[in-house]
């Protein structure tokens, strides 16, 4: 896990594991949507999730192009965009994939304003 808003494409023509910016035709729209979410999240907006084992990982403005972060061939985000014209971003909301129940109220507070800002863009 991490704390970042990722946008298409997740796959790249080179299939290098990481570091390839794979720009879609709607790249500016995707960045706008990702920033709408990330800019309201107290951790995501810093661009420094500080996840255990990945303390040096950074994401400018709390967003990333999927393939630049890591290449994923055949991902749902790309499939929905290419074949169904769905503008989908992926939200990584926690370093921990399975947070404790006691952590859920804090996660809600971290994400509430981001969700509202994102919904307003629809």
From TrEMBL:
Peptidase M14 domain ranges (all copies): 1-122
Keywords for this protein: Carboxypeptidase, Hydrolase, Protease
GO CC terms in record: extracellular space
Biological processes per GO annotation: peptide metabolic process; protein processing
Superkingdom of source: Eukaryota
Active site annotation, chain numbering: 92 (proton donor/acceptor)
Family annotation (InterPro entries): Peptidase_M14, Peptidase_M14_domain
MF annotations from Gene Ontology: metallocarboxypeptidase activity; zinc ion binding
Family, per entry: Belongs to the peptidase M14 family.
Name used for this protein in its record: CBPD Carboxypeptidase
